[in-house]
Request: fold
Amino acid sequence: RVGGRLYRYRARLLASRHSPLGSPLFSSSTRRPQPAAAMLPLTAGRAALRRAGGATSRRVPASPCHRPIAQGPRRAAMMCSGRTSTIMPTGATARRLLAGRCLSTGEGSSQAIETSPETRGNTPQHRQIDEPSSLVPLTEDEFDPAGVMSRVRKASGWNQGRRDAENRNKFGGKWDHGFVRDAVDDYERHLKYVLKHVEASGSHARNEGSERETLKGVLSGIHPDVHKCVSAERLLSPKSLASAARALTRMRLDTPVLSQRIRDIERLIGMIGWTPITEELSYRLLEANCKAGNVRRALALLELRRARGYAPRESQDQLDRAQQTAKSLRQGEKEFIHVLTSIQSAQLPLRRSRNIFQHEADVSESLIDNPTRYLDAVLINMNERGVPLTPILAAKMLNCYASTGRTGRATHFFYRVVRGATLEEGDGAKDDVEGIVDNARLKMRMHSPPPFRKIPSAAKGSSFAHDTTEGMRNEGLPIEAASGSGKTKYDQEIEREYSLSLTAAFAFADSLTHGACGHAPIELDITGWNALIKACCNRGAFHRALKILNETLPQKGIEPDYYSYNAILAGLARVGDITSLKEYLVNMTNKRILINKFTVEAMADGFLNVGDISGASSMVQDIFNQHETLPPYTTHLKIIEFALSNGLIFEAKRHVYFVQQLWKWQPSQHHDARFIRMIETTRRNPKLSKQALQKMFQYFGEELVDDDFF
Reply:
C-alpha cells in the first residue's frame, strides 16, 4: 500500500507541475527537431561530474518545462525557448515576449498553480493573471497621460526627484513607497484604458505584411481632448515602459506580488502591440523580472540582448558616473548579477518555509533547489558576450546553492510554547478546567534532544553501522549506511546520494577551477569557499564544512574569516552542539578573528536551544566585556522570553539589569566610533525600553516594578 501511494503521488506530482518562473520567448508550435550535432563543450556541472565518473539524477523525472539543456552554442536560448536553433527575436517574437506567451500553451504564462496536499508545503502561491484586478477602471475624465507619466518618471528616479533635505523633512529620511505604488497603479489603469480603446477599434489585430498603421491614427479618438490624444502616445513609448519597470522595483512589494505586477504590465503592453523593445527597455525589464524572481523571463531577456548585440551593462562610463570602483563591480557584470539575484528571489519560498520533512528530490523544480543549469546558461551568455568570469562572480553563483533554506538534517525542534495548564488524570474536577486555562501562563515544553548523528561532536569519526535503517531513512541518509558498511559521518556526507544539490554545488565549483563553458580556469577566493561552507551547513553536512575550514583552506593558503566561522557556528547552534560551539569560539579568539554580533547571536542561540538560559546570558555579558560586541536586540528579547516561559523570573531580571547597564554606559577616550555607535543603537531601541520590558513581563504574567530598575 505504501508503494502504491508513493507511485500515485509521483504521478499526480508530474501531472500537475507547472512553471511559475516566467515564460520563454518562443511558442511550442515553432519547435524544431533537434539536429544531429558534433560533441560540443559540456556544461559546468556535467563536465565535473563526468570527470568524477558519474552524473546526478533526481528521483522525480523532469517535466517538459524543466528538461536539461541540450549541448550546443546557444544553451541559454534553448533552455528559455525549447528550441535547438538560434533565431533573432525581433518583430512579432519580441511582442510575444511582452505579451507573456507560454511555451507549452501559447497563453499567458502566469497560470494558477494547482497544489496537491503533498506539494502544498513547497509550492509558491500565485493568482491567475486573468483574475479581476483590484484597480478601479479609469474613466474618461480621469484620463491624463501627461500627468501619469510625470509621476512615473518621478517615481523611477532616485529619491523621487527630491532633494535630500526636503525628503528628510517630509518623510523622515525614508522612501515614499506609497507615492511609487500610486504612480504605477495609475500607469496600469491608463494602459487598460488604452487597451480597451484599441480592442474596440480593432487596430491591435494586424499582420506583418499589411500596411502599418501609425500610432497617432490609432489613438486619435481615445479622448475628446486633442492634447491628451497626442500625450497618449507617450504611454506606449519604450522610455515610458522602462521608467515604469524601474519604478516597479521600488514599490517594496513581496516577491510573488511584484512578479505578478510586472507580468500584468508586460501583458498589457504586449496586447496593445505598439511598443518596440529597445536597449534601455530590455535592460529595465531584465532588472524588474530579476528582482521579482522570474528566472526564465530574465534568461529570455538576457538572450534577447545577446542576439541583438547589446553591450552588457554597466559600461565603464556608467560605472565612473555612479562612482563604482573596479574592485566592487567590473564592466559588463551588473546584468548578470541581476540574473543571479532572480535565482535567489525564486528560492525565497525555500528560505521562508521549507518543508524539512520532505526529501529534496521531491521538492518542486520550480523552486530551483538545484540551480546548476541556470548558472550554465549565465556562463554561456557571459562567454558569448565577452564578459570574463571573476572570483567575485563565481562566489555569487555558488551562493545560489546556499540560499535554498535548511533541510531536516540541519534543523531540530528543541521546544514548543504552550498556553494553558495541563491536567493529569485525577487532578481536580473538569469544571475547574476553564478557570485554570484562563489564568494559565505561557510555558515552554522542551522536546527530546536531537539524535547523535546530527551533532558533529557526538558523531566525530564514529561509525553509524549500529544505527537503525528507519532512523537513517527519516534523516534522508543513504540506506546503505545502516546496512553494516561502517561508514563515518563524513563518508556519508561526501556521497552523491546524501544531497544531490550539495553534490552539484561542489561539482560546479570544481568545473569553474578547470574552465567552464569557455571561460578560463579560476581559483576560488574565501568568498566562494564560504558559500560552499554555508551550503554544507544548510544541508547538515557539518563534517564536510569543517573539513573545508580546517584542511582545504590551509592547504590552499587561504585564511578563513569571521564569515566562515559564523556560518559554522550558526549551523552548530541549530543542532545544539555546545561542545563544538565553545571549541570554535576559542579558535576564533586564538586566531584573532573578528567576533561580531552574529557570532554572539549564534552562541546565545546554541545555549538557549539546549535550555541553558543562564549560560546564554552569561555568554552575552562575557563577550561584551572581553570583545566589546553586542548581539542584535532580538537576542536580548529571546533570553528574557526563554527565562520567563521557563519560570526563571530572577534569571530574566538578571538580564534586564545587564540591559540597564547599557543605558547607563558612558563612552571614554579609549572607545572607538564603532563601539560607541553599537551601544547607542542598542540603548535607543524602543523594544528594549522600560515600557517595552514591563509589557513583556506582563504578557508572561509577571511584574517588573520600578524597584527593579536603577
About this structure: The CA atoms of residues 143 and 225 lie 10 Å apart. The first helix runs from residue 2 to 15.
